[in-house]
């Protein structure tokens, strides 16, 4: 079958990761790369066509599909240009930087009829798919609640390398929590209301270093989430899955999902049920191991995008869905500042109409 001619916009940290995976993937042919640091990228990618302006990549290289890995504030502009050129997109998360720009991108993608995939790569882990299947089978009954942690200690060099990380918008809510919110939406169900509180007492930066959120799911489940980038723990998804070399593998579960008939830890997938399927606190609770093989989620994501581009399968996460994960995360940041509960249903409806809710 003919290879898919693909371009990459943005050759920063995540863009380079995509380029490495593409080089090893037999179903893609690299049409070109666009990056403002064209000379440096050309030296790093010998033999590749490199453009300083992404519009030249679209016009001259004429890719069938593009991976957008540019800075967040450029996602909408890049995606809209691709849509108008009839080019399918894999757009890194967050889908855009604001709900206004997300609504504009959604409208253009719909108008052009192109296929889209948002790069929340965790949806492609086999452990995540196994969890979703176990919940779908009713292994723990109706989900009652979720208790989750993402806590690690970012070193001082992390902030020195990019000073914006110590300013508003650079904290763990908008950088890290969005991954977790997308995972929860995918595995458990839609989130319809949030509350939150945040603090910056540990580092004293202008942005939070610690936060706690309350989540209400459409299916009636409730959730708590503790988030910190200044606490030493083994409890992050990255450490539990071993998905990134920056996070040494711990194998520890950072999620506990509790249901009417049992509970599941994630990512270990250990399942807890009472003897004989009872629902009685006087009966012993027994553990059962479930297993799912580890894979490279970025390769699996490219496999899925290939099938999306070819029309073999619907997208696991089109831009409309990625915008909903952005909406929830932004609402948590807002709730932490306003110290109030925020119902998200009207905002979802407004986003679906291509508008941002103002209430």
UniProtKB/TrEMBL annotation:
GFO/IDH/MocA-like oxidoreductase domain mapped to chain residues: 129-264
SUPFAM superfamilies xrefs: Glyceraldehyde-3-phosphate dehydrogenase-like, C-terminal domain (SSF55347), NAD(P)-binding Rossmann-fold domains (SSF51735)
InterPro entries linked to this entry: Gfo/Idh/MocA-like_OxRdtase_N, Gfo/Idh/MocA_Oxidoreductases, GFO_IDH_MocA-like_dom, NAD(P)-bd_dom_sf
Record domain Gfo/Idh/MocA-like oxidoreductase N-terminal: where: 4-120
Entries under PANTHER family matching the protein: BILIVERDIN REDUCTASE A, BLR3664 PROTEIN
Protein name: Gfo/Idh/MocA family oxidoreductase
